[in-house]
């Protein structure tokens, strides 16, 4: 590795909106707030969260004649 071209590697504290907190090393450093982490992300939990913004799913179902379950 060349000297003086790499960023400093610091301890970083991450906190998620779900309440999970963990510490790792990153070039960011300090405290970082994230909206989603591995404890609450659907890929890792196996649970899908369906966010219906302004009834878009209902509007789609009405338009194409689908029944909601």
Helix content: 10-25%
Instruction: Tell how many strands the DSSP assignment holds.
Output: 3
| Subunit arrangement of the protein | single chain
Question: Which consecutive residue ranges, at least 5 long each, have pLDDT under 50?
Answer: none
Name the descriptors.
single chain; 69 residues; alpha+beta; Rhinovirus 14, subunit 4; three-stranded mixed beta sheet; 2 helices; 3 strands; elongated
Structure, explained:
The chain has 69 residues and is of the alpha+beta class. The chain has a single domain, classed as Rhinovirus 14, subunit 4, CATH 4.10.80. It is built from 2 helices and 3 strands, in the order βββαα. The chain is elongated, with a radius of gyration of 20 Å. The model has no long low-confidence stretch (mean pLDDT 82).
Give a short synopsis of this structure.
The protein is α+β, with helices and mostly antiparallel strands and 69 residues long. It has a single domain (10-63), classed as Rhinovirus 14, subunit 4 (Irregular).
